[in-house]
């Protein structure tokens, strides 16, 4: 079985930050592998270790800067990586679900995997739609918010457990080829081993342009516009005490008295 | 001239930081207070390959060089020196086996260390032998095809948790030169006659295990001799540049950790209606701490890079070790000062950094010994 894992380098934000226009100011931003993707990679690598997958390929859309993040997945055990980038993408302010779907679908068609694993969402723009949208576009089956996957794949079926609202879970059998969007907690992602990091430097990382994968520039134009970004006003404050129960209990007592809640 | 790290080196640092933040920091206070060896964390570190990072790939390690090891040490020690040492010292002594050991020794002793199954140690110091290694009195005598070992080793890192030790023994008491007649012999801790006595009450690095080792008529097979008989001094000197650079990296890491903690606290703490980081006195402290840390980093990396080029750098390695360990002590001292009373208790990591920093001026050749070496090299030139 061949598995394709979609991975993304997401922007991370410091606790204190400022917004400039519709963006968080550059100096408060960092970059990291999307948390959900880390779980997707782990699941794929475990499938490989269990002898079910024979190849794990990652695909990302991003500039050269994100290669270090992509190599994290290679260091954890993925066999090779595809990175799609293009001058045309450089100028795009907002890469929407449509554009991502076009690009990722083209890569899926070229790679022809049995299973595509993506994260439920990306930690920065949180569209939460890419995986399912790719499946829909390609006519693949899909399962969203998967928090358990059976590793036997009997009769070409993926048996998954999905997380529903209100603590309810459902079991579903999904026909391959399929896209599963992976929820955090499905496994315990490993640290990349030092040997793995070393070996990852030799693993192939192919860079492809839109033309290489047969996507037209017009396919990635967006109709979405980001109009504002702001921090919601907080209506009340939370007070947080550190210390032993003895100390914090008396501080809580004082506060409640001050607020007139207790006498 | 190239001052940057490679992408691979950045990746190593990032992943080690992730490990340290998740696995080490939340547990640091506990192991320090209890003076307990952090087996659980060491096992996880082994899975990641942190314990045998410099053991060659063919024996299960990552085959990383001195510079990468320095980066790993810097990152680990910047989070908690006691647990960091517990992890990095798991392969103490194996450098001799790596360089001078037989194929059989490499398979038996390097592989299990790389995978975390076994912990090693280096036993040189004795109750009466510290800076002057030539006064080692632990005796190994040949009896048939065995070595019979008698003597006491003092301050041995991993003494009660180690599975084997590379022991520095006197094998020819009649040798002419001061540095002649010593051999390195592997002693497994489960041999009859080996006992250990844990040393508690250490000022710092309290998670790391330290013990006295007692060898009472311990018999080991002759194939446990590492390298050549009577050549231990020459063999051990071979690693001084790398091991001293390693301790420089430890000091650098402690300085870095203390500096970061001090920066955070200075920005958080308010007095006289403003953040204490607004006071010039605090700002100047932070500036000096950062500059000294950066200087220690440059010396350490330069030494590490040179070791990896195969250059002989006796003087530079001693400079890096002496300077970085001094910076560790000074920066952690100022970090406590910036914390005021809060720095005097273990609610914040600086109290630990301050206590932990001192060891870097003592082991692997004291500050005074490093200065002797530097002066000798300067004046001999
Ligand atoms: C926590 C810990 C872990 C250790 N781990 C190990 C280990 O794993 N294996 C191992 O073999 N050893 C280990 N050691 C021992 C360590 O290497 C020695 O403590 C160190 O070499 C100093 O020796 P000493 O304690 O005997 O001090 P001494 O040599 O007695 O020195 C006392 C003082 O005299 C000074 N002095 C000595 N000679 C000179 C000189 N010629 N010129 C100027 N000043 C001088 C020293 O600098 C020092 O200030 C460890 C020690 C500690 C505390």
TrEMBL record, chain A:
Keywords linked to the UniProt accession: Electron transport, Transport
Skewed-composition ranges (Basic and acidic residues): 254-263
Coiled coil ranges: none
Keyword Electron transport: yes
CDD domains, sorted: ETF_beta
Superkingdom of the organism of origin: Archaea
GO molecular function, one term: electron transfer activity
One protein family per Pfam: ETF
Gene3D superfamilies documented for this protein: HUPs
Domain Electron transfer flavoprotein alpha/beta-subunit N-terminal stretches: 21-217
UniProt-annotated stretches for the region Disordered: 228-263
Family note: Belongs to the ETF beta-subunit/FixA family.
Name the record gives this protein: Electron transfer flavoprotein alpha/beta-subunit
Natural source organism: Natrinema altunense (strain JCM 12890 / CGMCC 1.3731 / AJ2)
UniProtKB/TrEMBL annotation, chain B:
Taxonomic classification: Archaea, Methanobacteriati, Methanobacteriota, Stenosarchaea group, Halobacteria
Cofactor(s) this protein cannot do without: FAD
Species this chain originates from: Natrinema altunense (strain JCM 12890 / CGMCC 1.3731 / AJ2)
Gene3D superfamilies to which the protein is assigned, alphabetical: Acyl-CoA dehydrogenase/oxidase, N-terminal domain, Butyryl-CoA Dehydrogenase, subunit A, domain 2, Butyryl-CoA Dehydrogenase, subunit A, domain 3
UniProt KW Hydrolase keyword: no
PANTHER family in alphabetical order: ACYL-COA DEHYDROGENASE, ISOVALERYL-COA DEHYDROGENASE, MITOCHONDRIAL-RELATED
Domain Acyl-CoA dehydrogenase/oxidase N-terminal, residue spans: 6-117
UniProt cross-references to Pfam families, sorted A to Z: Acyl-CoA_dh_1 (PF00441), Acyl-CoA_dh_M (PF02770), Acyl-CoA_dh_N (PF02771)
Acyl-CoA dehydrogenase/oxidase C-terminal domain mapped to chain residues: 235-379
Identification of the protein by name: Acyl-CoA dehydrogenase domain-containing protein
Domain Acyl-CoA oxidase/dehydrogenase middle, first and last residues per copy: 122-218
Keyword check for Transmembrane helix: no
GO terms for MF: acyl-CoA dehydrogenase activity; flavin adenine dinucleotide binding
């Amino acid at each position: 079985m061949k598995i394709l894992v979609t991975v993304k380098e997401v922007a991370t934000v410091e606790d204190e930050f400022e917004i400039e226009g519709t963006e968080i100011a550059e100096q408060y931003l960092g970059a990291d592998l999307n948390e959900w993707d880390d779980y997707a990679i782990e699941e794929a690598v475990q499938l490989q270790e269990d002898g079910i997958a024979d190849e794990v390929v990652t695909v990302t859309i991003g500039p050269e800067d994100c290669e270090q993040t992509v190599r994290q997945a290679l260091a954890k055990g993925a066999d090779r990586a595809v990175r799609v980038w293009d001058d045309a993408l450089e100028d795009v302010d907002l890469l929407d679900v449509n554009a991502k779907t076009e690009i990722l679908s083209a890569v899926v068609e070229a790679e022809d995997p049995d299973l595509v694993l993506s994260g439920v969402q990306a930690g920065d723009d949180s569209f939460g739609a890419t995986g399912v949208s790719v499946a829909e576009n390609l006519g693949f089956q899909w399962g969203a918010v998967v928090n358990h996957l059976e590793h036997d794949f009997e009769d070409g079926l993926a048996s998954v457990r999905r997380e529903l609202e209100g603590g309810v879970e459902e079991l579903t059998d999904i026909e391959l080829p399929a896209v599963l969007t992976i929820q955090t907690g499905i496994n315990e992602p490993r640290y990349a081993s030092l040997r793995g990091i070393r070996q990852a430097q030799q693993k192939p990382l192919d860079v492809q342009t839109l033309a290489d994968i047969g996507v037209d520039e017009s396919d990635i134009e967006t109709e979405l516009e980001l109009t504002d970004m702001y921090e919601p006003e907080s209506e009340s404050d939370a007070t947080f005490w550190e210390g032993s129960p003895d100390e914090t209990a008396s501080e809580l007592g004082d506060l409640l008295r001050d607020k007139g809640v207790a006498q | 001239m190239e001052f940057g790290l490679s992408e691979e080196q950045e990746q190593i640092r990032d992943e080690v930081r992730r490990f340290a933040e998740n696995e080490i920091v939340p547990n640091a206070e506990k192991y320090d207070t209890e003076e307990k060896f952090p087996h659980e964390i060491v096992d996880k570190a082994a899975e990641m390959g942190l314990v045998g990072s410099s053991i060659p790939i063919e024996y299960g390690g990552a085959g990383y060089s001195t510079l990468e090891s320095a980066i790993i040490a810097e990152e680990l020690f910047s989070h908690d020196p006691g647990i960091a040492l517990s992890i990095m010292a798991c392969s103490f002594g194996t450098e001799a086996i790596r360089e001078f050991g037989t194929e059989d020794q490499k398979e038996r002793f390097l592989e299990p260390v790389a995978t975390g199954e076994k912990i090693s140690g280096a036993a040189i110091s004795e109750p009466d032998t510290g800076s002057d290694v030539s006064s080692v009195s632990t005796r190994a005598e040949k009896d048939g095809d065995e070595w019979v070992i008698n003597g006491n080793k003092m301050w041995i890192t991993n003494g009660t948790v180690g599975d084997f030790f590379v022991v520095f023994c006197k094998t020819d008491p009649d040798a002419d030169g001061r540095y002649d007649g010593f051999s390195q012999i592997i002693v497994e801790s489960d041999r009859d006659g080996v006992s250990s006595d844990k040393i508690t009450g250490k000022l710092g690095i309290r998670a790391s295990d330290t013990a006295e080792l007692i060898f009472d008529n311990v018999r080991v097979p002759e194939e446990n001799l590492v390298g050549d008989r009577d050549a231990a001094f020459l063999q051990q000197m071979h690693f001084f540049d790398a091991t001293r650079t390693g301790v420089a990296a430890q000091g650098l890491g402690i300085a870095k950790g203390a500096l970061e903690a001090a920066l955070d606290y200075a920005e958080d703490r308010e007095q006289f209606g403003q953040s204490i980081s607004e006071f010039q006195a605090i700002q100047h402290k932070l500036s000096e701490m950062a500059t000294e840390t950066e200087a220690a980093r440059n010396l350490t990396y330069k030494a590490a890079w040179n070791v990896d080029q195969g250059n002989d750098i006796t003087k530079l390695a001693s400079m890096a070790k002496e300077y970085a360990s001094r910076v560790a002590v000074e920066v952690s001292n100022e970090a406590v000062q910036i914390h005021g009373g809060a720095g005097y208790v273990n609610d914040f990591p600086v109290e630990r950094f301050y206590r932990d920093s001192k060891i870097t001026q003592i082991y692997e050749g004291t500050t005074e010994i490093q200065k002797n070496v530097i002066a000798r090299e300067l004046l001999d030139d």
